[in-house]
Amino acid sequence: MNYLPTINPSTETAKIVSFIKTVLQRQGFENVAIGVSGGVDSAVSFSLLAKSIPPQNIFAAHLYYFKSQIDLAKPLFEKINIPQKNIYNISIKDPVDALKNLAPLRQGFGGARRTRLGNIMARVRMIILYDLAKKNNGLVCGTENKSEFYLGYFTCFGDEASDFEPIQHLYKTQVYSLAKYLNVPENIIKLPPTAGLWTGQTDEGDFGFSYKEADGVLYLYFEQKNSLPQIISKGFSNAKKIIDWANKNSFKHHLPYIIK
Fold it and tell me: Is the pTM of this model over 0.90?
């Protein structure tokens, strides 16, 4: 039941490396700031950057609220010999809590509303990344994949903010294929996808369905224009839940709304 096109990792890598080099050259930049979470998307994006520009031109920031997982990324840093001064291990707890405790925002951060705190985390991370890029006259590299994009699984003006996106054209399961080709450490590949927005949070736990199932449904619905009944008939029992999730968040792709 795999309807998603397979990718050629070698060809895909060459295409993305060319894309990164072209963006930087055309926009007149040499340096790049990237958030490295310890997950597969940022690991793949970082590995592709390392194939595109010299290691001294990469500024990597691990921005955590609960517990640092930078040790997961150390093999990546060591493999390309990124300068230690270019690696930032930063707790965002103080600035996030300061915003959380502002009088107009105080209260209502528990239970279903904990996503408010997650949104603040995502936006604080992006403030830091953009300032890091500005400090070093660089661009911000995003780490979003196509599954997250279609599902709207991102914080507006937070983790979806970037200057260029090297893997947004790839579904999550395709990113895993590329990760293996790029020799991303197995412990990163096996780590359950999470944005680290609260203790025990995982992407698939939020969804109630897997990326593997979502990718097939999203591809058939958005790219092949199959109807919901057609997709269900192909064996995707969660098709309605997946499409409803994507449609519920589709407004994010059209912001801001303007008078035309």
Answer: yes
